[in-house]
Structures are given as C-alpha cells and as structure tokens.
C-alpha cells in the first residue's frame, strides 16, 4: 500500500478530534444540531488558503459551509466533495471512552461521528486545503461542502441548499459517504462504491383503545396490548427478497463459488444463506435485498393506574429500487394482517430510492487512482441501506457515489456495527488514505484534457 504521508494523517487527526468535540448532536428537531460550531471550526481551518468560502444558514445554528476552487474551463465538470457535520445522539454509559472526547487511543480516534462521517468530512477539508495551498488550478471546479442536518433526512442541510442555493452546490459529480471498505474475496480485494440507496418511508401507527382503571384489566381494550402485537408482527414479518441490478453486479463481481453465488442471487434461496453468515454481513445483505420494517419508538399511556386509550408507534420502512410508496404500504399492511384496519397510519416522510449509473468518468477515476494504494483491487457497485444526502444531487441530475479509502484494519463487519453504534472509532491510517484519495481524485478528474 502506497505511502500517504504522515502530515496528512496528523493534520486530519487533529481536525477530526475538533469536530467530534463540538458535539453537533442532531436529534431530529430544528433546534438541535448546532452545526454552526463545526462550520466555524472548518472555516477557521480553511481560511487563508486561497479558497472561496461561503456559509449558509437554513435555520438558527444550522450552518453549512461551502469552499471552492473555480475551474478554468466553464465546460469542464464540477466535483463536489460532501461531508456532513452533525452526528446522532449517544448513550455515554455504553462507551469505553468519552464519545465526545475525540481521544487518540492506540492509533484510533474515538468519538461519535468518527465513522459516520466526520472522518470523511475532515479528510475532504484537509485535501481541499492542501490542493489550494499548492496552487491547484484545475480545468473543472472543485467544491467542498460541509453540510448540516444529514442525520435527520437533510431538510435543513442538503435539501435546503439544492432548493434555495443551487448555484453554490450544483455539481456533475458528488462523492459522500460511505463506501471504500476493503472487502476480501476469492477473486481479490474489492472496494465497494455506493451507487444507490434505499428509500425511506417514515410514519406512525396510531393504535386506539378504551380508557379504564388499571385495577380492572380483564377484557379491556388496552391500546398498549394491541400495540405490542403490532410490534410483534412487524418484527416477525418476512418480506420477499428482491434481486435488483446493483445487488446482482456486486455478488457477480465477488468471485464466490457457485454454491454461494447462486443462492445469494436467488429470491427464494437467499434467506437460508443469510442464516449462516456473520451477523454484521447478514444484516447488510438482508437489508440490501429486502424491504425492511423496524418499529423504533413507542409512546402512550398517561398514568400508571389508567388503561391507555392511545399508543403511537414510529416505524422506519426502507424500500429497494423499484419499490414505490404504494408497494411499501402494501407490505406494511401484509405485516399487520387483520390489525391493518384497526390502526391508523400517519405518514411522516417518504423519500424514494435513488441510484446513479456506473459507466461514468468518476467511476473510471476511482477505479484508476485507488490502484496507488491497493494494486489489483477492483471497485464494485454497492447499495447503502440507509439514507444519505446523495439522493438530492441525483434528483438534480448529478452522479453521486459514496466512497472513501480505509485501511485493512477496518473490516466490513466493524464498520457496519459502529455506524450509529457504540465505541465508534477510526484508525489514523484510514484518515491519511482518504485525504490522499481526494487529492488524487480531484487531480485525475478535473485536470484531464477534454
């Protein structure tokens, strides 16, 4: 693996620690996030390097920062490197180190956001600053976006910018989270590139009942008891697997023997195969091939001695390419069975699945430059099962991928379990690799002759 330089690694480590310590926690409310703290930190870091900087506020405290190096050719492509600055809430009691301490322990930076995705946000900033200071003058334009509110579906971040500040962020090519984890396979090392993502159908199931005294529960219409059955049915529901084109290309490229490849590409055989896989991989592979329905939040009841008459259950439904809102609702009704007509569904938000083409100059650039660090590796398409800000740019006509470059210390299994999980951390070698990657990608894509 090629040398990336100790200065990149150290610089990115220090910046990442600062972003983690700012604790820009997004709980989904407009008052949360406080991303202005990270925007201010990044602006201070980037100032004086020759970059054009502009901050955009969508709501009080919800600041996104844009930095750009304007290209010399208005007909050349624009590349946007996009990292979000907010993080999800955390339970400190479940961590071995302070989740907002940004501690460096045995070559790893610990903290909420170290994986999702402050590591890439910081490495992108370091790369853009290094390029600007070196006098980088590309044909195409390079834009860096440190965006707010990704962790709550982007209403106060990327969605706001694309709708109201489009000229500042419009791009032909976008790179954001979360691919690039080295994945060993029988046919060599693979580097997954996120080319699409599942859709999100968020809503509430409102369960009604009849109030009564808690001392007389016999034959009562207890909304909480009905809600418990709703949760049980959602948990046990087994939707039909769907073998879409991204999944087919991914599995085909892995070089697995036929006895593994064939069931993984079979809508009838994949579920049995998943049962024998490591847990992290099984969860990923299941989500990549199924609509998922997850009950996540429940609220109801007024007092310990009152039978509850209303309970609300929040449900996170994720849809595959080709599955629209109506089809997802049909699967939800199938899961509920005869309870579907006894409860009320209240929609909260729907985002359809999105996907970018693979046959693009950006794909060629990623495949080419990664050989510097992983000779003989192959970039392979993959679907992320969560939502990213890439979807807003795909809908705006751009090609958007999720990528980064990580050391082989970061496994597919560990990466998946740390996303929104406990003991989130990133090795500093990966920070240096991603920083070097962004410099190479910008140079390869934006300076090429037409």
Describe the protein in words.
Helix 3 crosses helix 15 (428-446) and helix 10 (279-289) packs across helix 14 (412-418). A 6-stranded mixed sheet has the order 1-2-6-3-7-17, sandwiched between helices. It has 15 helices and 18 strands. It has helices spanning 6-21, 36-46, 118-133, 158-164, 166-169, 223-236, 245-253, 258-264, 270-274, 279-289, 325-336, 361-369, 390-395, 412-418, 428-446, and strands spanning 52-59, 62-69, 78-84, 104-105, 108-110, 141-147, 173-176, 190-197, 199-208, 212-213, 292-300, 306-307, 310-319, 343-351, 354-355, 378-384, 399-402, 425-427. The mean pLDDT is 95. It is globular. It has 2 domains: 6-186 and 354-446, Aminopeptidase (3-Layer(aba) Sandwich), CATH 3.40.630.10; 199-351, Alpha-Beta Plaits (2-Layer Sandwich), CATH 3.30.70.
Short structural description:
This protein is α+β, with helices and mostly antiparallel strands and 450 residues long. The chain has helices spanning 6-21, 36-46, 118-133, 158-164, 166-169, 223-236, 245-253, 258-264, 270-274, 279-289, 325-336, 361-369, 390-395, 412-418, 428-446; strands spanning 52-59, 62-69, 78-84, 104-105, 108-110, 141-147, 173-176, 190-197, 199-208, 212-213, 292-300, 306-307, 310-319, 343-351, 354-355, 378-384, 399-402, 425-427.
């Amino acid at each position: 693996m090629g040398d990336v330089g100790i200065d990149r690694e150290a610089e990115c480590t220090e910046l990442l620690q600062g972003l983690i310590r700012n604790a820009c926690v997004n709980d989904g409310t407009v008052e949360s996030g406080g991303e202005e703290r990270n925007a201010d930190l990044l602006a201070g870091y980037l100032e004086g390097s020759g970059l054009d900087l502009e901050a955009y506020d969508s709501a009080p405290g919800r600041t996104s920062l844009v930095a750009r190096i304007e290209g010399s050719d208005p007909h050349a492509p624009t590349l946007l490197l996009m990292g979000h600055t907010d993080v999800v809430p955390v339970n400190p009691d479940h961590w071995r180190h302070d989740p907002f301490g940004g501690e460096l322990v045995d070559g790893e930076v610990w903290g909420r956001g170290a994986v999702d995705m402050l590591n890439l946000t910081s490495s992108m900033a370091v790369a853009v600053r290094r390029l600007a200071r070196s006098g980088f003058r590309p044909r195409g334009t390079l834009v860096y976006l440190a965006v707010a509110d990704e962790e709550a579906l982007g209403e106060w971040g990327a969605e706001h910018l694309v709708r109201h500040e489009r000229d500042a962020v419009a791009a032909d090519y976008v790179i954001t989270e979360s691919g690039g984890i080295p994945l060993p396979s029988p046919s060599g090392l693979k580097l997954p590139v996120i080319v699409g993502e599942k859709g999100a159908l968020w809503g509430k199931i409102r369960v009604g009942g009849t109030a009564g005294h808690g001392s007389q529960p016999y034959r009562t219409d207890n909304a909480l008891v009905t809600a418990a059955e709703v949760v049980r049915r959602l948990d046990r529901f087994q939707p039909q697997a769907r073998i879409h084109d991204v999944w087919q290309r991914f599995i085909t490229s892995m070089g697995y023997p036929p006895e593994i490849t064939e069931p993984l590409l079979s809508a009838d055989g994949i579920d049995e195969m998943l049962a024998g896989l490591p847990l992290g991989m099984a969860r990923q592979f299941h989500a990549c091939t199924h609509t998922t329905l997850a009950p996540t939040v429940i609220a109801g009841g007024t007092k310990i001695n009152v039978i509850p008459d209303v309970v609300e259950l929040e449900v996170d439904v994720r849809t595959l390419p080709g599955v629209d809102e109506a089809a997802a609702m049909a699967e939800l009704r199938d899961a509920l069975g005869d309870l579907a007509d006894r409860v009320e569904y209240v929609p909260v938000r729907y985002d359809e699945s999105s996907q970018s083409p693979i046959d693009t100059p950006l794909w060629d650039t990623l495949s080419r430059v990664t050989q510097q660090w992983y000779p003989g590796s192959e970039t392979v398409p993959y679907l992320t099962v969560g939502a990213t800000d890439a979807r807003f740019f795909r809908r705006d006509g751009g090609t958007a991928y999720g990528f980064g470059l990580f050391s082989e210390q970061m496994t597919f299994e560990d990466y998946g379990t740390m996303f929104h999980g406990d003991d989130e951390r990133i090795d500093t070698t990966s920070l240096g690799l991603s920083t070097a990657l962004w410099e190479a990608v910008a140079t390869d894509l934006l300076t090429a002759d037409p």
